[in-house]
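Researcher: Here's my situation. A collaborator sent me these components and asked whether they could plausibly form a single complex. I don't have experimental data yet, so a predicted model of the whole assembly would be a useful starting point for our discussion.
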Amino acid sequence: MLRTETLSINVGPQHPSTHGVFRMLLTLDGERVVDLKPYFGYLHRGIEKTAEQRTYLQNVPFTDRLDYICGMSNNLAYALAVEKLAGIGPIPERAEYLRVIMAELTRVVNHCVAVGFLLNDLGAFFTPVLYCLRQREYILDLFEMASGSRMTPSYIRPGGVAEDVPPEFIPAAKKVVAGLPAFVDELDQLLTGNEILMARLQNVGVLPPERAIAYGVTGPVLRASGVAYDIRRAEPYSIYDRFDFDVVTEPGQDAYARFLVRLGEMRQSARILEQALAQIPEGPVMAEGVRRIRPPAGEAYARIEAPKGELGFYLISDGSPNPYRFRVRPTSLINLQALRDMCVGHLVADVVVILGSIDLTMGEVDR
Amino acid sequence: MTELDIISRLQAALPGLAAEPVEGAKDPTLRVPVGDLVRVASWLRDEAGYDYLSNVTGVDRGEQFEVVYHLYSIARGGGPLVLKVSGPWDQATVPSLVSIWPAAEFQEREVYDLLGISFAGHPDLRRILLWEGFPGHPLRKTFENRTVPNAEMVATMADEEVPHAEN
């Protein structure tokens, strides 16, 4: 019998598939993964500590920089936590609609990036991702119109939104949203039945539902394991209870199912956006009297269905103008816990695909 | 079944439990003695359906440390139920809940890293965001948040951790 040894190799911290600075120590038996240890923290900026020395409003821009693909969603989760803590409300109707519109546009942006770069990781260099990034730019133009910034909007604030959108925003948004179903259909036609894509994604990174729940995995990864858990349904926040949409699930439990869930969620976001853009009323966009936020002593946890999964903020106030504790429940970090389980037994080349199918942003993992 | 019903069922099922609901909390909150944490957590998972541990974090409360857990149920819907354990800083060790909810693994490591609270029985308790030699635990209130010269930080790193080391 041939004597064999396992081999340890480093993937990262600088590696094109890691979407940021992330290192995996792989133990290999031939080309099979027998163990995987993730190392991170390279992007740790001490946001939680720094936030304790800033006021509640000054902390809004820090939230943009957690998951920097999804600035608007992060703003929303933080705003909900501050509102719960300080008892701010009710939020004006127009602001609630703008929040939902921004959050759903962000979901489309995130899924464009996730699907596009997954294809890049598979070796389909920059053709599929270009279609996706073009669609993303149309939406980032809308964000720029509303907030002045493409990726770090700081637009959704405790009490409402920073300011009303310009009059040309709603027609422009309707135009972008009207084009979304065709864009998703195009991706669907180009990719879903592609033989190479199916061969590389199907039965790769299988995560059974009970394992997914145990690891605390949320978002498209959980729903691709067949669990219909979406916080927009399970615990509706803002005005999500008013819209018609389906919680997209897939029974496949693999990377292919995650890809399909993301396509499906873009279609559902388009449905929500159509309804919200048709119903949005005129009116103020900021609650009365939100000037200096000084919550009473206490604590609050608020969470949303961010594009990657559950994003929560746990804030503690001691009655001063700064939070006593500012905790981010980072979606990406917690979804990463399932990585080892999904990779063991697969080939090295599949690790890249599985990592891409989880969809991480290191800015949120490391904070 | 509300969270408050569950708390009274829990107290009936585990006699001698000194767990106290926290009055006036925004979410139903239960303060549990450190020694009873594993027993309470197992009961909540197996008997009350809390299959999803969402958030684990620590707080520096001055003289005391505190570890906070946010539980939800995916199977039956419901939550949050907040568990809290606390104690003096010289006994800052809490039993690990990784064996009950694997979701606790990275978050307990983070609490250990940033606050210096230890988790007994954790399978791999190492620092997670900072390097092993990092001086202190940044989320402690006594930790001074200041700009540190690079050389001072590099001096705390092991050789293989130093970026751009000249070999």
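Model: Some features of this prediction you could bring to your collaborator: The helical segments of chain B are 3-13, 37-48, 104-115, 150-154. Strands of chain B lie at 20-21, 29-31, 52-61, 64-72, 81-88, 93-95, 118-120.
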